Amino acid sequence: MAIPTWLRECADGVEVFIYVQPGAKKTELAGDHDGALKLRINAPPVDGKANAAVIAFLADRCGVSKGKVLLLSGDTARRKRLQVIGITAASVVKQLAR
Q1: Average pLDDT per consecutive 10 residues, the chain (98 residues; last block may be shorter)
Q2: DSSP 11
Q3: CATH second-level architecture of 7-97?
Q4: pTM for the whole structure
Q5: How far is CA 32 from CA 6, 46, 64, in A?
Q6: Nearest residue to 62 (alpha-carbon basis) of 32, 35, 84
Q7: Which of 7, 9, 50, 62 has its C-alpha lying 20 to 30 A from 90's C-alpha?
């Protein structure tokens, strides 16, 4: 199984590069976007609500607790780099495909 460009193995788990579209009608994955996984989020980009929604969505889809999803960069940007602790890249690809 090929690892997508938006996913990278690291020491404790994986890093996921995400492009966020906040304020969408519904929360859903929208495929690749310029080397990142595009994620439409129905939360507004106000007071960290979109970031919290991204973390909750990724944790739910990967089957880990929200505490194991860390926002590494992109706090106020659409492009974000997150780390999911305790999971493999192959597992992330499988979980996100469902």
Answers
A1: 90 96 95 95 94 97 97 96 96 89
A2: S
A3: 2-Layer Sandwich (3.30)
A4: 0.93
A5: 8, 25, 23
A6: 84
A7: 50
